[in-house]
Structure formats: C-alpha cells, structure tokens
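In the laboratory, one determines a bound structure by crystallizing the protein with its ligand and collecting diffraction data. In a computational setting the workflow is compressed into a single prediction: the sequence and the ligand go in, and a structural description comes out. We illustrate the idea with 6-O-phosphono-beta-D-glucopyranose.
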Amino acid sequence: MCGIIGCVNRGERTLETLVDGLERLEYRGYDSSGVSLLGEELSVTKTAGKIADLRAALEERPLDGRLGVGHTRWSTHGPPTDENAHPHLDCSGEVAVVHNGIIENYQGLRDELAGDGHTFTSDTDTEVVPHLIERALGRGASPEAAFRDAIAQLEGSYAIAAVVGDEEAIFAARSDSPLVIGVGKECAEGDREYFLASDVPAFREYTGKVIYLDDGEFARLESELAVTDSDGQPVEKTVNTVEWDAEETGKSGYDHFMLKEIHEQPRALRQCLSGRADELAGTVELEEVDDVSPSSVHFVAMGTSYHAALYGVHLFQQAGVPAQAFHASEYATVTPPIGDALVIGITQSGETADTVSALREARSRGARTLAVTNTVGSTADRECDETLLIQSGPEIGVAASKTFTGQLAALNLLTLATVESGRTRRDVVPELRELPGRVQSILDDSNAEEIADVYHDSRSFFFIGRSYQYPVALEGALKLKEISYEHAEGFSAGDLKHGPLALVDDDTPVFAMVTGDDEIARKTVGNIKEVEARDAPVVAVTDGQSNAELYADHVLRIPEAIPRAAAVLTNVQLQLVAYHVADNLGRSIDKPRNLAKSVTVE
Ligand code: BG6
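The predicted complex, in structure-token form:
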C-alpha cells in the first residue's frame, strides 16, 4: 500500500531523509513516488515508476528545503502516471499533500471545488485535499484551521500529511490508515527533529522513539510536536521505544529480504516463545489472554494469515472447542451467528482493511476480539480487546514468511494457555522449544534449490496435505504464486481425486506433505499413488516415518515432530521451493507485481 514520509528540522539532509525513507517503504508495494520540500518556495518532484526514477529526476533538478513530505503510491484511483503521483498541489502551488487510503466522497468534493473554479490535474481522490485547504485559506482560515477544515470534510480512510503555505510545519491526520511519528534528536537551535511515516522502518535509522497517532488525532510537526484531537484539544501521547534496530530492516548479505526472513525463522520462533513457553515446567504464560477461555472461536483473516487461521481452527477443534475460519472480506456478508464466540483477527500488519473491518463488525455485535499480529500500535492491536504479538521482527518481503511461522507458534501458545490440558502442555511445550533448532536444520540441509531447478518451468504446481498439513498445502501454493507468478494450487489430499486430478500429468509436480505414520499419513500415501499413476512428478515433504518415499521422485526431508509442529517444518521447505523457483525465473521476489505488503483498502 502507499507509503508516507515527512521530516522537519533536518536541514540540508531533508531531501535525502525523504528519499531514503521512501526506499525503506518500497516493500509496501508502489508504482510511483514523489517529494515536496519547503525552502524559499514550495517545490515538488514526482514520477511514475521506481524510486530510482525519482532520484534521476532529482539529479536533474535538486530540491532543497527545511522540511518536506514524500510518498510512494500504489494506484487505486487512476493509473501510475507522473500527474497521479503524490504529492498533490492546489491551484496556487502553495499547498502539498500526500495521502494513504481512499476518500470515498471525493467525487462530490471534486465537483463542488470545480464549481468554485478549482482546476484538477490528476485522476486521484487525493487531489481534492489541497484544494479544500486552498479554499479555506482563501476564506481567511489559518493554515492549521484550513487543514482541519479540509480533513473534517473527508469520508473514508486516510493518513494525510500536508505542507500549507509557507508555514514552517507539517500537518498530519489519520483515520483508518497508519501514521507514526519519530521523535528525533535536539538540533543546535533548540529545535527538535521530527519524522512522520506510514511505518517505522522509514526513519528507524534516525530514532527508535515513536508515537503512534490514533484515528481522529491531528499532529503539527514544527520546532516542537503538538498532537491534538478533532476539537483542537491537546492529547497526551506515549513515546514508545522500538526494540529492533535499523539493520534488521537491511538485507544482511542475502539476495532478497524474503530469503533473509526465511532464515530468520529460528530467531523469530525463539522471540515468539521466549518468556512464554517454559519447557521445564511444561507451562505457558500469556498474560495477554489471562482471562480468555473461549467456548467457540471465529477466525477472520486474509491471504497467508487465513491459512494460519485454518491451522488455528485445528488446534481449537482438537481441544474440543468449536472453531471456524472466515475470509475477513466475507465475514460481514455471511454475518455468522457470533453468540459468545471469541473473534480472532490474524493479521501480521494489523492494517489489512478487510480484517480490521471484520473485527469492527464483530465488536459492533458485542463480540470480544483478539488480534494476533506482528505490529505494535497497529489498528488491529489498538482496537481489539486483547492482542497476542507474534514478535517476529520487521518483515520487509511482501510475501509473508517468518510472520506465518510466528503466527503458527503464537496460536499454539494461545490454545495451550487457554483451552488445552496440563498434560497436553507438558507434551507440546518441549516440542515447541525444539522448533527453532529443527527449522535451522532444514535451512542448513534443504535440497529445495535443486528441486526448484528441476521443476521451475512446470506448467502448474500442486500441493496436497491433510489435517495440519492442509493449511500448509494452501500456503505453499500461495507462496509460489505470489513470488513466481506461476500457477499453483493447494488441496486437501483427499480432494484431489474429486476433480483436480483431471489436471494432473507429467508437467504438474505434486508436493505431498506426509508426516508420521498414522492413518492420515497412510491415506496421503494413497493419494500420492493416485498422482504417480498419472505420471505426475511427486515431491514428498516428509519425516520418513511412512513409506511415502517409495512413490516419490524427490524428497524434502524434515525432522520428526508431532503433527502440529511438523506443519511449521514442512512449510519452511515449501517457502524455500517457492523462493528458488521465483529466483530461477528472475522474479521481483521482495516486491512481486500487483501485490502489497499491507492492503489497506477493501
Ligand atoms: C497481502 C500480503 O497483501 O496481505 C500477504 O501480500 C498477506 O502476504 C495478506 O498474507 C494479509 O496481510 P496481513 O497483514 O493481514 O497478515
């Protein structure tokens, strides 16, 4: 989704702060970018394409200024063109605005403003904002009053930053779209550096002190910071300290952020489990959910997080608690009877509009809500009754990898802490503590790269699994689709013969997840035989306890583990397969076409 950056009191480093910050927001997905600086006058440079294109334009015509805003745009209204890129200006060129979100009533505002003589140069919803500010200024309002007046007329979701006239300040406001403020160091003249962004990585190298704006709040960044409510009353805000450091958002020598994040999974698991799962005592401490003991559960999530929700359904059902997983985007339409269900939103960004909307729907109907998220201060975190943080650290690659693993681990902690027996805890907690080491052994020894070399140009890829391995089959297919753009599909292993088997031939490798040697494993081996009999290449992802390997062309080995833990391990092998297939095909792995890290529109 779009990215916003702003800074004040950075002196001659203003431009580099903005452009470098935009580069650190690239992971959000974008197709144009731009900056506006206030110096002797208000200047703007913006281009379709990548940040490199913006840098080239700035090389030709550098901008200077004492403060400024920048933006990466992921098109929602109008194609990615120079004119549609942000920042957007008013008629006079005195007001510059950047925006993330959707202004739902923009057409009416645009018609009204055009009727007042304002001319528009873009197709975007955003462009109404600078003209609303200009109109208010023309009626005698101060820059701040004009900004507030414009915001008050907007309906929809927005994170907005504006430079108004020659006021030495940045004005910001948010509703349903994240904005975070960085509190920088004091400058020589007694002023203080302040940063504004959609997400912390944009300014993390300069400061770890952050303030999360809440919906309906306004911020004025000048020599000092003022946060006020919609009535202009000061709001007391907490200054949080971000634990992770800027290098964690660098590639650390890996070719891609995604590969780095796949390899960070042992650490992400340890971070998720630390202080919560006590191996010796076989206990789980989760004060976030101390008084949570659901009699039934509704999961709402999208994408990879939806697959984690399916996994969570298994965990609760195995513990005797009825559970259902809903695509968040469907939740409001199916309006399932909620009763006393706990509604759990799984969302690594905490900003996915579909999921946030479903959680709001649940709350409006009196449900208790829990967010399973990776992002402190996110909308889901702040609006749910409880939050279970997955502690994976920043994930820059658009396709989720370590956050999915973190979600699975967190869901185990959740059921172990709330609905599972002491005996189960004593059996499972040691297995959870083994996970980081077992994942590491897969990362060290995997032959996924050579299997990707063999099959990277196949027509289609199929993934099959049962029980906990069914969500893994879906996730393995999604990962491959997301970053290789090749067709892939996941199935419950038993479902293959009810139709999809018609697609199976020698150009459709089938990845079969088979762990343990129980009835489930034996049935899945039967499914492997079905596809093998139709000449499909078979890759068994297995711990070797069953005889699956007898019918497979290749094996991706995992260490033995209990079923709920084995799903974490097989998924790591499939992440590596997806990565190497995409790498073979030369794809833009960290920023796949058409995708965004956080989709804040429904
Ligand atoms: C998509 C991401 O935009 O959103 C996926 O590309 C992700 O990787 C999905 O699974 C849901 O995101 P979140 O933040 O709600 O988990």
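Residues 422-445 form the longest helix (24 residues). Keep in mind that any predicted model is a hypothesis to be tested, not a measurement.
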